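Quick start: read one record
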Amino acid sequence: MDAQLAVIAERLKVEMPYARGDRNDHRTCVEFLNAIISQGSQRFKIRAVSEYIPFSDAIAEWRNVRAALITRANRASHTGSLTEFEARGLIEACESTIARFRCTSCNDPVWISDQAGRERLQCSCGQLRWTYS
């Protein structure tokens, strides 16, 4: 999740606070999720009939996954051992989180089509959008 969310945040041009030196390279998935959730509530949209509305289902799912990552994937918060059930649940939640950046219609990621003149990214069919501001 750390590596995948870092790439996603970069492609979406998610603004992250400045971190000097090694701290920048050691950001965790929770830090990326915090920034994506914060900015995504206004920027991540899905087409609903004739207008675009905030993709609140994705944001809600990301909040749940963030909570699961903090409680189950953070070694400082537990002994480091998960049951098989907990591990599978966490893996499925993480995969679902990453999948939310792909359109269910065209299967392209939201960043496939850069509409720089219109200040947004979108999937090929235009179902999903991420606005720059």
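The longest helix spans residues 56-72.
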